[in-house]
Write a structure and sequence with these properties.
The chain has one domain: 434 Repressor (Amino-terminal Domain) (Orthogonal Bundle). It is built from five helices and no strands.
């Protein structure tokens, strides 16, 4: 296991965000997350996507809702 990686969902969040119709910016995803109750800004989204910040289980559920996907799809490698 690569100990430099602190989350497995970051690249999936980035991919799903860019594949959304219309594509979401980090800023617009942060705004969606905030409406769902997560205190995340654009910089935090960037850190998550680049695997520099851990993602809490509750955030995974909110990311899934914001991206209209299942939580499991965020965890697939």
């Amino acid at each position: 296991m690569n100990t430099d990686t602190v989350n497995v969902c970051g690249p999936n969040i980035a991919r799903l965000r860019s594949q959304a119709k219309p594509p979401l910016t980090q800023e617009s995803l942060a705004a969606k997350m905030q409406t769902l109750g997560a205190e995340l800004d654009r910089a935090t989204i960037a850190k998550i996507e680049t695997q520099k910040r851990k993602v809490f289980d509750t955030e995974i559920i909110l990311f899934a809702k914001a991206l209209n996907v299942s939580p499991q799809s965020l965890l697939n490698k």
